[in-house]
Amino acid sequence: MANDPRDALPDKLHVYTGTAIDVTYDKKRCIHVGACIRGLPRVFDPGSRPWVIVGNSTADKIAAAVELCPSGSLQYVRKDGGPAEVPDAGNALLVSPDGPLFIRGQLELVEPDGSVRKETRLTLCRCGASAHKPYCDNSHLKVRFQDGARALPKDKLEPDHAGPSGLLRIEPQADGPVQLSGNLRVLDAAGTVAGTTTGAAFCRCGHSGTKPFCDGSHEKAGFSTA
To answer: What is the pTM (predicted TM-score) of this model?
Structure first.
């Protein structure tokens, strides 16, 4: 969304409290897809201050709207005894056209210091320009990143099988690709299943000739994650 008022918010975790549910917002991870706004506009209204009005709906409806957020910038904590978010039954990665990697499932993100974050929804940069690596921050729009709209390389994937599940470990490599380990279904830009993998390195420098997979081009390009 152009000139979104949320862009003026400080770079910190914002907490919006309610009687039955609390909602947190991480501006650095938001790419303004607008799924929350379309899902529950009376609660998620960028034109209001605060922009999240927890008292305008029920905890169940707010939780459902938060779970639509693909980047994980929105999270919630139930205070009424309601259920916490349950990861999707199968791990799935969608390669968006000229944009980031959308990943959902039972995720484990390894931080640069070696600590681990449990996640259910992530949007990861693959243009190389994000200021908040490994997360996408919409820099692909500024640098006009293009992936050539090519079909996904079949030699990197196995035939599809039902319900890839279990823990998916996501480990960004310093000055290199993001390594994914675990059962994963990979979808192309049209949302069509291209195949599955249990371990693959995905390009995040933007230069690979085998996008979305790494081909070592980060070394020649001098890609830095610092």
So the answer is: 0.93
